[in-house]
């Protein structure tokens, strides 16, 4: 059915197009001869097509969630010193541990218990309470001989060096710890001087008791340099050899990512109520800040307890549940670990429950050694310091924001079609006028008395 449009409506539409703020369509309508009208039609179509292409390209770029990475070298005279966790490289070092090892090996069932003696003894030690576990390794007074920071002597007390139990190394001690023993958060150590002469210095006694019957491969210590508030498990340790002075120069790098969908990280991971994941909340209940690595560890730890009813040291950093002692239990954990890896367990199950934090701090290390001239047997000296006042800041920025997208579309439309936001409003206004015209016409047919009034209004509108 052919739609009939009245002359008045055609006149209104034509007049609106001619008065439009855009360029192409008014020229087409106002052209007096056919060649000029064809000329303007061709260029308007070409401009409209190229405009549509560029606008579509900008929209696709926006939904690609692209980011730019800004790397800046900054300077600060007051830098937060990292937490330093120091352990003897040997789990068993004391006379008490020698007695414990002998008793454990005497009680060991050669047919059913874990075959490898050292692994069995470490698993056996995890069945003890914390007081007994502390007796297996070095005490604070034995392990740390001297300490100083920025040329100032540091007291060797539980207040300064907080105890930390490490599943692999046993008794460890943290300088500049995140919390006091009562759980309250401490103020971090601020360093105002850099260089070797102002280092955090510590002398360690790495010797072990002669009564230990299991073979010892090495003597020494291990140092974990981790962000204030993070767990020592979040970084790899630096081994320290006895008989040497080890110098560790630090450079701090902070990284800030933009949350999803621009990266894989999630915002507000420091808020324990932000996500409903039980794993996420349980990590927040620990002594350190949240980290996805720790959440992954707890995720697998609980899977071990679920499938094998126990856990194995080395496959988890947690001590929740029962330690495996039997060979078949250990094989269960090993088989479970490789099965889960093959089935992308961490991606499929743990990752949705363990959001990735967007902010992180890492310390790059430049390590040098020098041979000690005196008393080299069993003792090791360590110097840890910032090499200068600079640090690296890595920050992501959104390439195309919502405001940028709108601005780009407006610029493209203005360049190729000469339109603005008000040009689109003009189109809406034409529809409103047409609708209003037909509404009045419908009312006029129902109520003839309003005909004169409508004619007067239409005449006023044209004027």
What does this structure look like?
With 463 residues, this protein is α+β, with helices and mostly antiparallel strands. It has three domains: 7-64 and 412-462, no CATH class; 72-265 and 358-398, Acid-sensing ion channels like fold (Sandwich); 282-357, Orthogonal Bundle (Helix Hairpins), CATH 1.10.287. The chain contains 14 helices and 15 strands. It has helices at 7-18, 24-30, 34-63, 95-107, 117-125, 130-136, 140-143, 278-284, 292-308, 327-342, 345-353, 402-417, 421-446, 451-462, and strands at 67-75, 79-80, 83-88, 144-149, 152-153, 161-166, 170-175, 190-191, 200-205, 221-226, 238-240, 244-256, 359-371, 379-386, 390-398. Strands 1, 4, 5, 9, 12, 13, 14 and 15 form an eight-stranded mixed sheet that branches. A five-stranded antiparallel sheet has the order 6-7-3-10-11. A two-stranded antiparallel sheet has the order 2-8. Strand 4 and strand 5 form a beta hairpin. It starts with 6 loop residues before the first helix and ends with a helix. One of its GO terms (molecular function) is ligand-gated sodium channel activity. It holds the Pfam family ASC.
Considering the chains and any ligands shown, give keywords for the structure:
eight-stranded mixed sheet; disordered C terminus; Acid-sensing ion channels like fold; 463 residues; 15 strands; alpha+beta; 21% strand; 3 domains; Helix Hairpins; single chain; elongated; five-stranded antiparallel sheet
Task: List the topology elements.
Elements: H1 7-18, H2 24-30, H3 34-63, E1 67-75, E2 79-80, E3 83-88, H4 95-107, H5 117-125, H6 130-136, H7 140-143, E4 144-149, E5 152-153, E6 161-166, E7 170-175, E8 190-191, E9 200-205, E10 221-226, E11 238-240, E12 244-256, H8 278-284, H9 292-308, H10 327-342, H11 345-353, E13 359-371, E14 379-386, E15 390-398, H12 402-417, H13 421-446, H14 451-462
Parallel strand pairs: 12-14, 12-15
Antiparallel strand pairs: 1-15, 2-8, 3-7, 3-10, 4-5, 4-9, 6-7, 9-14, 10-11, 12-13
């Amino acid at each position: 059915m052919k739609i009939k449009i009245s002359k008045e409506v055609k006149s209104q539409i034509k007049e609106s197009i001619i008065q439009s703020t855009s360029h192409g369509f008014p020229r087409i309508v106002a052209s007096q001869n056919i060649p000029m009208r064809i000329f303007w039609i061709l260029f308007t179509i070409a401009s409209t097509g190229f405009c549509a292409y560029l606008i579509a390209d900008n929209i696709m770029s926006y939904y690609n969630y692209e980011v730019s990475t800004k790397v800046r070298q900054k300077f600060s005279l007051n830098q937060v010193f990292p937490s330093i966790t120091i352990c003897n490289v040997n789990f068993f070092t004391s006379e008490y541990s020698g007695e414990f090892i002998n008793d454990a090996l005497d009680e060991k069932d050669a047919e059913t218990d874990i075959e490898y003696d050292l692994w069995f003894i470490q698993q056996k030690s995890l069945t003890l309470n914390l007081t007994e576990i502390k007796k297996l390794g070095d005490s604070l007074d034995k392990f740390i001989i001297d300490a100083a920071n920025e040329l100032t002597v540091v007291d060797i007390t539980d207040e300064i060096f907080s105890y930390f139990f490490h599943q692999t190394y046993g008794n460890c001690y943290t300088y500049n710890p995140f919390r006091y023993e009562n759980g309250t958060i401490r103020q971090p150590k601020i360093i105002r001087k850099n260089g070797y002469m102002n280092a955090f210095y510590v002398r360690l006694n790495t010797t072990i008791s002669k009564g230990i019957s299991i073979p010892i491969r090495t003597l020494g210590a291990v140092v974990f340099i981790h962000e204030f508030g993070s767990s020592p498990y979040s970084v790899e340790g630096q081994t320290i050899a006895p008989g040497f002075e080890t110098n560790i120069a630090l450079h701090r790098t902070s990284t800030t990512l933009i949350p999803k969908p621009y990266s894989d990280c999630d915002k507000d991971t420091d808020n324990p109520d932000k996500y409903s994941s039980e794993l996420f909340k349980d990590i927040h209940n620990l002594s350190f800040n949240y980290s996805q690595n720790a959440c992954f560890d707890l995720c697998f730890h609980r899977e071990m307890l679920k499938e094998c009813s126990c856990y194995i040291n080395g496959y988890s950093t947690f001590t929740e549940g029962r330690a495996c002692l039997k060979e078949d239990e250990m094989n269960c954990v090993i088989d479970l670990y490789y099965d889960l890896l093959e089935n992308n367990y961490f991606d499929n199950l743990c990752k949705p429950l363990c959001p990735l934090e967007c902010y992180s701090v890492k310390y790059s290390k430049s390590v040098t050694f020098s041979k000690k001239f005196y008393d080299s047997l069993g003792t090791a000296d360590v110097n840890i310091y910032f090499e200068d006042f600079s640090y690296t800041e890595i920050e992501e920025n959104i390439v195309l924001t919502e405001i940028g997208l709108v601005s780009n579309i407006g610029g493209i439309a203005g360049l190729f079609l000469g339109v603005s936001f008000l040009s689109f409003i003009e189109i809406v206004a034409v529809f409103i006028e047409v609708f209003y015209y037909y509404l009045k016409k419908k009312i006029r047919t129902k109520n003839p008395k309003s005909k004169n009034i409508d004619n007067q209004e239409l005449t006023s509108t044209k004027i």
